[in-house]
Design goal:
This protein has 299 residues and is of the alpha+beta class. The chain has 2 domains: 190 residues, Spore Coat Polysaccharide Biosynthesis Protein SpsA, Chain A; 103 residues, no CATH class. It has 12 helices and 11 strands. The strands form 3 sheets. Strands 3, 4, 5, 6, 9, 10 and 11 form a 7-stranded mixed β-sheet that branches. A two-stranded parallel ribbon has the order 1-2. It has a two-stranded antiparallel sheet with strand order 7-8.
Length: 299
């Protein structure tokens, strides 16, 4: 997927490959060698194999700062910016007190389905119109631009507390320091969006054959889980302050209840009925054919 991303980036008018920093955190499929062979101007930074998302991002940002970058961009491997999107983010960053600007992402192949639009009070802000620049509290880390002077002022993302989902806590920190965080409607990007991975615990359990205990173990103890106990605790502190403990208890209790309810639902409801219910519930959020395709692959 990395080579596909670089193939895409190489065709963009506003991105230069010699400015691309690629963090390879212990891949074992020869990714670095393939990149060096095809795109020798791309700078490859080797990780330890234990950086996860936030640690990799922080390492790349630190290298960009050493190289005196004026702007720093995050770009995930599954995101494909439109030509000109990086320039649109730069333009937004030149506006007064804007420290962070996120792209308007859509499900690849389905431009009418916007995803990861930004957060207001830790909830999705909704779709951003093409000509709008919408101020939010935080953004998701798919394709995001920063002023380098803001990064120097704020510091790097906290990969100790938030090893895998450090994007929204970091961009919210920028907001709390007095800078604006925005989503730029004209900075469009396609996202290879995995619908099932983003469903609530209820639906994931209801569609799965895994034991309830496996799901609880995953959600609570897996670093890549949205409910990873340590990151969820610190995220509650970031977004709710002194009330964070109550938010943490609510979040984790809700997750456990949803897992149990999902297990009960699948035990008494036929799988076809569960799928129909999910389709109806998500009809305005996700394309039906893609949702069905992912369900069939899992089954």
């Amino acid at each position: 997927m990395i080579l596909e991303l670089l193939d895409h980036v190489s065709k963009l008018s506003d991105v230069h490959l010699d400015e691309v920093l690629l963090v390879d955190d212990g891949s074992i499929d020869g990714t670095s060698d393939k990149v060096i062979k095809k795109y020798p101007s791309v700078q490859i930074i080797q990780g330890t194999g234990q950086l996860f998302w936030t640690g990799s991002i922080a390492l790349g940002m630190s290298r960009a700062l050493v190289q005196d970058a004026d702007y720093i961009f995050w770009l995930n491997h599954d995101c494909r910016p439109a030509s000109g999107a990086a320039n649109e983010l730069k333009k937004a960053l030149e506006l007064g007190m804007v420290g962070c600007a996120g792209a308007s992402c859509h499900i690849a192949g389905y431009p009418e389905y916007g995803v990861n639009p930004g957060l207001l009070c830790n909830k999705n802000a909704g779709k951003v119109a093409k000509g709008d620049i919408f101020e939010v509290d935080a953004v998701n880390g798919n394709f995001v631009g920063f002023r380098a002077d803001v990064v120097r002022n704020i510091g790097l993302p906290d990969f100790v507390r938030f090893p895998h989902y450090g994007d929204s806590p970091y961009t919210y920190k920028i907001k709390k320091r007095g800078f604006k965080v925005v989503v730029v409607g004209s900075a469009s990007a396609d996202l290879e969006y995995e619908i099932l991975r983003r469903l609530s615990p209820f639906w994931r359990v209801a569609l799965s054959q895994k034991e309830t205990s496996e799901w609880l173990n995953y959600y609570i103890f897996n670093i890549k889980s949205r409910y990873f106990w340590r990151a969820a605790f610190y995220e509650s502190q970031v977004f709710r302050g002194f009330l964070g403990m109550f938010g943490y208890i609510k979040t984790m209790s809700s997750m456990i209840c949803l897992v149990i309810l999902g297990a009960v639902f699948r035990a008494i409801i036929p799988k076809k009925t569960i799928i129909l219910c999910l389709q109806k519930r998500m009809s305005d959020r996700y394309p039906k054919d893609k949702l069905l395709s992912e369900i069939n692959e899992q089954i």
